[in-house]
Protein: Putative protease
Organism: Roseateles asaccharophilus
Amino acid sequence: MSASPKHLELLAPARTADIGIAAINHGADAVYIGGPAFGARHNASNELADIERLTRHAHRYGARIFITLNTILRDDELEGARRLAWQVYEAGADALIVQDMGLLELDLPPIQLHASTQCDIRTPEKARFLQDAGFSQVVVARELTLPQIRAVADSLDGAVLEFFVHGALCVAYSGQCFISHAHTGRSANRGDCSQACRLPYEVVDSQGRIVAHQKHVLSMKDNDQSANLRALIDAGVRSFKIEGRYKDMAYVKNITGHYRRLLDEVLDERPGLARASSGRSTLFFTPDPERSFNRGSTDYFVNGRKDDIGAFDTPKHAGLPLGWVSKVAADHFELELAEGVGALNNGDALTYFDLQKELVGLRVNVAEPLGGARWRAWPNEALDTLKDLRRGAELSRNRDMAWDRMIESERTAERRIAADLMLLETPEGLALQLQDEDGHAAYVELVHAHQDARDAAKAEAAVHEALGKLGNTVFAAREISLQPLRAGRPGFWPASVLNQLRREGIAALEQARTQAWTRLPRARPVEPPAPYPEDTLSYLANVYNQAAFRFYVKHGVKVVDAAYESQEELGEVSLMITKHCVRFSLSLCPKQAKGVTGVQGTVRAEPMQLINGKEKLTLRFDCKPCEMHVVGKIKKSVLKESVGVPMQFYRKRPVPGVQA
């Protein structure tokens, strides 16, 4: 199965195959994971044997595995990427998530292609182009509003629309941030971002005044669309993507379980929609997104621009409110827990804000109950090193050892496919007819002598008990029925016979599912090639190899500049383009001043500066599309230490009749 106009797909991340298996068990319809290389996440690669192990597990449930092959590639890397595409295809992968259009010019296997978030899909025209170029699934920019998402969905007539519903937010439009390469030589488009957006900055206005001091003004809260799922479905989203290929097992279990529950509620309400895979997950815990690492939550721009999308005080995880400090001694402190908060544990991690509003963390070495809500805690750290830990300070807990022990245990969920089993008594013995929730069927027979049952009710109960023992399989018995040879007079069948028949029947049913499994179809590009929405591409298009250049020329582009990583853009350029506006967040936007007496006309969108140590960046505000550009240039040290790959692309519009 796969996402379609009626199927809803929950798409979960995985750093490793084991995390991917947990995601499937906790309700994911698909998992995206890095292969051995080119996966846009440094140190998040997986060997082919692990990919094969994960695909085998996923396919048992009709779930799918998507491989991230979404870095931009040099010419000398294209052949390795092509070989890798074939290797993961042969390992059973269902789709490649791609950024570099050069891959489409290669001899790829007949595997489905999905457009990466790095493709920066903000318009219906670009989404439609990618569909017409051969992509089966496209993920739109996280910055879009519901009407904009609907417009993109309406432009598609075959490709599935995917949208991020949870996780960390990159402040830039994906694929449109080059600060990391400019300052460190580490390219975000090649999976090695230095995360300059999480640093603290001084914000200085055009007159040299500091308007924000040591604030993380480019650091966003984390995405959480829990409240918007129905609206997103109505807007045309069919694949709901969780961010987090760097995240741990506990995060993936918790967040996947959370969205599985929410989507199942919608599916129960709307019979016209269905899951994109088989089975139902039972969770043995109550998911709580607030317990996983987060910087606070926002639904970003889905419901329009808001002024509280930033995590400006800290990019760290403050945790859930715990209580407050009631006393500080030489080697310990006492605290009172807020109402409804769980007990303090040895090993818990706590946080509080010092008097400069910087987040401070500490680890509880020993926790001692004092009665009621009062506790005494001995921290791992010396008390005199914990800045501004004081009476009345509010405490949060960002690691709860009781929760961690629970979520890290092996049995936090199980996933089962519903199956109906009918036992038929035959003249030669017994037969078992099975059919699962997807309509796959199996039939097995067993020769055995008949023996009349002394107690018909007891014999029938024994049949139900024996056939219902599906605990070590992927199935759960939905209905068990018995068709005796003589009406109303079931025979007596030894438990060993029933168990053997059940095992053979389940093996046959799983074999039937395996034989019926088919690969996702590869979309064919339209002919003649669809024209790209623009005829000129700047460095922002991330074209880093000759194959990508040929792709765009084939689709009508006349001028192609090389990717920023080629290091041909040596002057000041936009190193980041973002929908987030520092002026708006600091209440310094000219639009906010409109109609305010005494203020209107005095606030202008003049440039500002961001300063972090010796690093300086300029903020320029493009008010018509309501976007901000972070402007800077590549550092001399980067130019010395790393050599950009020279690109022989057109630098100006070619003269007709003159060969390039």
